[in-house]
Write a structure and sequence with these properties.
Organism: Thalassobaculum fulvum
CATH topology: Rossmann fold
InterPro entries: Cyt_trans-like, NadD/NMNAT, Rossmann-like_a/b/a_fold
Shape: globular
Distance between the termini: 46 Å
Domain Cytidyltransferase-like: 33-212
Bound molecules: adenosine-5'-triphosphate, nicotinate mononucleotide
Enzyme class: transferase
CATH class: Alpha Beta
EC number: 2.7.7.18
Number of strands: 6
Number of domains: 1
Order of helices and strands: EHEHEHHEHHEHHEH
């Protein structure tokens, strides 16, 4: 299947990519949405994005730099522009795009972002991507159940979070919609709710550790 290059997407003033510009491509572009604080961006983010291309067959991965995670304290959160810049530098991949979509849309809650993106980009298929740590606490997110109904979800393993994630309220509530990992490449085409947990090679990087190391001068 031909790959869709980033420059074939028309990006209107909102910064949100719209329909493919080259009308020749009638299939729906599959985009992985990886929301994050990126405080700062690191190799763990790249690791997940690369696995997402491979395991989900995506055309692009968008790193949605969050203006402010509603569940994290604002104290210690670097300026949005610095985090966006950090994500742009770390992406180093033609199909990973660090984006300020939530800042432009004025959304903070993922449920609102997904509803807005689906309305603006009706020809795209979205998959929400997150690490196992976020599935473990997903039931604390605003309208978390709606998120599962709005978008396919792919969860990537992360050191020390596999068990907590798979025992979580969200995993239990949506157990019957879990797609076997061998069918992960079908996820983007499935009607939500549909989600997959990928037991992949884990990457130890964490922004908390990087900030701690910076504070300790190491
Ligand atoms: N090493 C990793 N393995 C798997 N998923 C990861 C990894 N690092 C980040 N993620 C995922 O990427 C998304 C964005 O993460 P975020 O920017 O918050 O980085 P973080 O390292 O988790 O930050 P912090 O330590 O400040 O909480 C989240 O869904 C998170 O679960
Ligand atoms: O919508 C929510 O209630 C919500 C609660 C916690 C996290 N999120 C989103 O989850 C993504 C990952 O956040 P983080 O800080 O773990 O990188 C990011 O896009 C946040 O906006 C969203």
């Amino acid at each position: 299947m031909a790959r869709v290059r980033p420059h074939s997407l028309r990006v209107p003033a909102s910064g949100v990519a719209a329909v493919p510009a080259n009308g020749a491509d009638r299939r729906r572009i599959a985009v992985g949405l990886m929301g994050g604080s990126f405080n700062p961006a690191h190799e763990g983010h790249r690791h997940v994005a690369e696995l997402a291309f491979r395991r989900l067959g995506l055309d692009e991965v968008w790193w949605l730099v969050s203006p402010q995670n509603p569940l994290k304290p604002a104290a210690g959160m670097a300026a949005f522009e610095d985090r966006l810049e950090s994500a742009r530098r770390a992406a180093r991949h033609p199909r990973i795009r660090a984006r300020d979509i939530e800042a432009r849309l004025g959304t903070r809650f993922t449920a609102d972002t997904l509803v807005a993106l689906r309305r603006r980009c009706p020809t795209m298929r979205f998959v929400w991507i997150m690490g196992a740590d976020n599935l473990a606490g997903f039931h604390r997110w605003d309208r978390w159940s709606l998120i599962f109904h709005a978008c396919a979800v792919a969860v990537f393993d992360r050191p020390s979070y596999s068990l907590g994630a798979l025992a979580s309220r969200a995993a239990h509530r949506f157990a019957r919609f879990r797609v076997p990992s061998r069918a992960s490449r079908t996820l983007a085409r499935r009607r939500p709710p549909a989600w997959v947990f990928l037991h992949t090679r884990r990457h130890p990087a964490s922004a908390t550790r990087i900030r701690e190391a910076a504070r300790n001068g190491s």
